[in-house]
Amino acid sequence: MSRYLLDTHTLIWWLNGSPQLPQPIRAGLDQAELIHVSAASITDAYHLTRKRRDGLTMEQWRALVDQLLDWPDDLIPLELEPITVDVALLAALFREMTGITDPADLYLAATAARLRLPLVSRDEELASWDGLGGVLEVRWESPTATSTWA
Fold first, then answer.
1. Which of 130, 42, 132 is nearest to 83 (CA)?
2. Residues near 146 by Cβ (< 8 Å), separated by ≥ 6?
3. Fold type of domain 3-139
């Protein structure tokens, strides 16, 4: 079953049809059986919007949240993932192991590891964690003969 957790930028680019999301990755996500989104991405997108780092206006951020909360049943199934106690504890452990301080990245990595899902992210810092303790897989490559998205 092809299931993925999207990081905040990947989520925004996927929902907005942005050309910043490479076509092979978009095609893989569009064929996924289930897309997971961490609650941390909602807050992260808000902070990115406030800092004007993702190109979204506050109105667009609100529309993104509404879109996630009112996700139609006839599209790719989407699951909003809460920040649970075990995710928070795993995020704290990752903080100690890596020295990374960005809370959103820590929660995204912990959620992906907890759910045993690939994290779809272009973030180089997150990609440097790939394989962290054998529990984290970060993807941002075009599918090849040996590596596919489906």
1. 42
2. none
3. Rossmann fold (3.40.50)
Q: What is the pairing mode between strands 34-38 and 78-81?
A: parallel
Tens of pLDDT, residues 76-108: 899 999 999 999 999 999 999 888 889 999 999
One-letter amino acid identity for 30? D
Strand locations in 1-150 (E): 3-6, 34-38, 78-81, 118-120, 137-139
Q: Enumerate the domain spans of the chain.
A: 3-139
Query: How far is Cα 77 from Cα 30, in angstroms, rounded to an integer?
Result: 10
Mean pLDDT of the region 46-65: 84
The C-alpha atoms of residue 56 and residue 45 are separated, in whole angstroms, by 9
Dist CA 17 CA 60 (whole Å): 13
**Given the DSSP bridges, would you call strands 118-120 and 3-6 parallel, antiparallel or unpaired?**
parallel
pLDDT digits (tens, 9 = 90+) for 101-136: 899 999 999 999 999 999 998 888 877 776 665 567
pTM of the model: 0.86
